[in-house]
Amino acid sequence: MLKKIQPIVTLVGAGPGDPDLLTIKGAKALAEANVILYDALANEEILSYAPKKAIKIFVGKRKGCHEYTQDQINQLIVDNALTYGHVVRLKGGDPFIFGRGGEEIDFVESFGIPTFVVPGISSSIAVPAYQGISLTKRGVSESFWVITGTTSDRKLSNDVALAAQSSATVVILMGMSKLSQIIDLFQKESKGEIPAAIIQNGTTAQEKIGVGTINTIQQVVTEHKLSSPAIIVIGEVVKESNKLKGFYEDFIAKELK
């Protein structure tokens, strides 16, 4: 008698890029997977935790280049779970931080398929931390905002304007295409001298960083040829990083010339 397929879906956060930042629980889930659907921001080295016989399907999305639509991804998760059993949906960072993980869980559960979530280390926290940027620091920053730079209708989030009025550290994901708008909002609040950092491919061997102020960060991006995927960090805590002191010494020296 054939063994009945037991469909299960586990949503796993792959972390910010460094494969060593995958959680132990995430690795265990991959080891038990029959099928893995993975994103562009999930380091492919992580797939080594999966059985060799597991089916691996790339469903990544980049700006202007989508392998599958979100609806197609949702259906792929369900179809593979019903056909093969345990599906691991591997998503970069944490699946519930701008990862559409909630939408995928809702869709899968509408078919009566059990789901589990393994949180991942969010790039919004880990990438600045790798550069010694503490998003909160006593006497410097009491809170932080994490905001998407690009909403579902391809516009800049209104929350950026609100964040620019606060004294909090501001972390913006998926915001490189809206950088000039972000700069304008902070300058309108007379915050042109606030430190800013842009970190591309954070926590990976391809990591690149540029630092400056709101007034100069656009020039820094051009000089260092920074692009997506990158995280924008704005706030006094950027200047507090011991790792970035060399960058700021060079920056100040240029400003004084």
From TrEMBL:
<comment type="pathway">
    <text>Porphyrin-containing compound metabolism; siroheme biosynthesis; precorrin-2 from uroporphyrinogen III: step 1/1.</text>
</comment>
<dbReference type="InterPro" id="IPR003043">
    <property type="entry name" value="Uropor_MeTrfase_CS"/>
</dbReference>
<dbReference type="InterPro" id="IPR014776">
    <property type="entry name" value="4pyrrole_Mease_sub2"/>
</dbReference>
<keyword id="KW-0808">Transferase</keyword>
<feature type="domain" description="Tetrapyrrole methylase">
    <location>
        <begin position="9"/>
        <end position="217"/>
    </location>
</feature>
<dbReference type="Pfam" id="PF00590">
    <property type="entry name" value="TP_methylase"/>
</dbReference>
<keyword id="KW-0949">S-adenosyl-L-methionine</keyword>
<keyword id="KW-0489">Methyltransferase</keyword>
<comment type="similarity">
    <text>Belongs to the precorrin methyltransferase family.</text>
</comment>
<dbReference type="GO" id="GO:0032259">
    <property type="term" value="P:methylation"/>
</dbReference>
<dbReference type="InterPro" id="IPR050161">
    <property type="entry name" value="Siro_Cobalamin_biosynth"/>
</dbReference>
<keyword id="KW-0627">Porphyrin biosynthesis</keyword>
<dbReference type="GO" id="GO:0019354">
    <property type="term" value="P:siroheme biosynthetic process"/>
</dbReference>
<dbReference type="InterPro" id="IPR014777">
    <property type="entry name" value="4pyrrole_Mease_sub1"/>
</dbReference>
<dbReference type="InterPro" id="IPR000878">
    <property type="entry name" value="4pyrrol_Mease"/>
</dbReference>
<dbReference type="InterPro" id="IPR006366">
    <property type="entry name" value="CobA/CysG_C"/>
</dbReference>
<dbReference type="GO" id="GO:0004851">
    <property type="term" value="F:uroporphyrin-III C-methyltransferase activity"/>
</dbReference>
<protein>
    <recommendedName>
        <fullName>uroporphyrinogen-III C-methyltransferase</fullName>
        <ecNumber>2.1.1.107</ecNumber>
    </recommendedName>
</protein>
<dbReference type="InterPro" id="IPR035996">
    <property type="entry name" value="4pyrrol_Methylase_sf"/>
</dbReference>
